[in-house]
Amino acid sequence: MSLMKCFDCAWAEEVVDAVGVCHHCGVGVCLRHCHVALEPGHRLAGVGQSTLARPARELTCLTCHFAMAPVQQAEAKRSVH
């Protein structure tokens, strides 16, 4: 049986099992190359949507996480380096 490997580790010529897949782009990610956030859950309700009482977990690769980060967060990262 073959397990999914982390895309970013494979790019660096390392072999590390993935713990999940990116919610946005679908690549396999290990714990070192993922970001886990709690996002409000939504469910369709009639013609609209309702927010669920508890947040849901959303796993993304670091590339997607930083690409979708608010501008202020991205600018703060750049000013630190």
Helicity level: 25-40%
* Poorly predicted ranges: none
Strands side by side in the biggest sheet: 1-2
Structural domain count: 1
Radius of gyration: 16 Å
Number of helices: 3
Mean pLDDT: 82
Question: What is the fold's blueprint, element by element?
Answer:
Blueprint: H1 7-11, E1 20-21, E2 28-29, E3 34-45, E4 48-61, H2 62-67, H3 71-80
Antiparallel strand pairs: 1-2, 3-4
What does this structure look like?
With 81 residues, this protein is of the alpha+beta class. The protein has one domain. The protein has three helices and four strands; from the N terminus they run αββββαα. A two-stranded antiparallel ribbon has the order 1-2. It has a two-stranded antiparallel sheet with strand order 3-4. A hairpin with a 6-residue loop joins strand 1 (20-21) and strand 2. This is DUF2180 family protein. InterPro entries: UCP037465_Znf. It holds the Pfam family DUF2180.
Provide a concise account of the structure shown:
With 81 residues, the chain is an alpha+beta fold.
Protein traits:
UCP037465_Znf, 81 residues, alpha+beta, elongated, two-stranded antiparallel sheet, two-stranded antiparallel ribbon, DUF2180 family protein, 4 strands, 3 helices
